[in-house]
Amino acid sequence: MKTPTPIFTILAILAFSFSSIAQTRSQVKTEKKIEKEILKLERKTEKANAKDFREIAKAEEKWHRERVKEAGAREKNYSKLAAKAEKGLAKAEYELYSSRAREEAQWHGARAEEAVNRGKNIKKNGEGWNNERAAVEADLAEQRAKDEEKWYRDRSRIAAKQDRALLRTYAKENRKMAKAERKLYKARAKSETRYYSRKSNQAGRRTGGI
């Protein structure tokens, strides 16, 4: 059997080597192309995700700004309701105490008139008596009727004065209560405004930072 010459062996080795190198280069080129496509897809995905996140952040920012407006509207509404409640309560109390004062004043006035009439009747009836005792008793009865009239009229004035004082006290307390209530609602509305403003700003920063 004839052995191959060294030149053919070398040529075969070189051919195999060139083939391997060409195959390797082709494989590397293919891999680079695949990597490029993958990178392109990743960038496209990242861009789409960034767009989605921006849309979400914008929607969230808008939502929080709307909550801020609502909180401000509630603050105004709370103040109006508190003022209306204060006015209604004060009016009801005023009507109640005024009515009671009128009734009490009328009652005392009626008692005073009765006392005056009793004094007049006693004096009139006593004029027909022919003794000194009857005249003295008539004078005493008239004086007692006058004193009683004065007492009832004083009670009427005192009752009216007390009712006016009570009205002032209740009105003052109502104003204090309404003021405290408005302060409370205002603080709560401001707290809500700050909270939603902070959330809105955070969403806005995410929108610009994405």
Describe this structure in words.
The structure is a single chain. It is built from 2 helices and no strands. It has a single domain, classed as Helix Hairpins (Orthogonal Bundle), CATH 1.10.287. The chain has helices spanning about 5-125, 130-210. It is rod-shaped, with a radius of gyration of 52 Å. The relative contact order is 0.12. The chain is mostly helical. It is about 95% helix and about 0% strand. Keywords: Signal.
Care to give the gist of this entry?
The protein has 210 residues and is mainly alpha-helical.
Q: What is the highest CATH level, the class?
A: Mainly Alpha
- What series of H and E elements makes up the topology? HH
Strand residue percentage:
under 5%
Helix content: over 70%
User: What is the architecture at the second tier of CATH?
Assistant: Orthogonal Bundle
Whole-number average pLDDT?
Answer: 68
Using the CA coordinates, give the radius of gyration. 52 Å
DSSP helix count?
A: 2
The structural class is: mainly alpha
Query: What quaternary form is this?
Result: single chain
Number of strands: 0
Annotated CATH topology: Helix Hairpins
Shape: rod-shaped
**Uncertain spans, ≥5 residues at pLDDT below 50?**
none
- Tally the structural domains: 1
Major beta-sheet overview? none
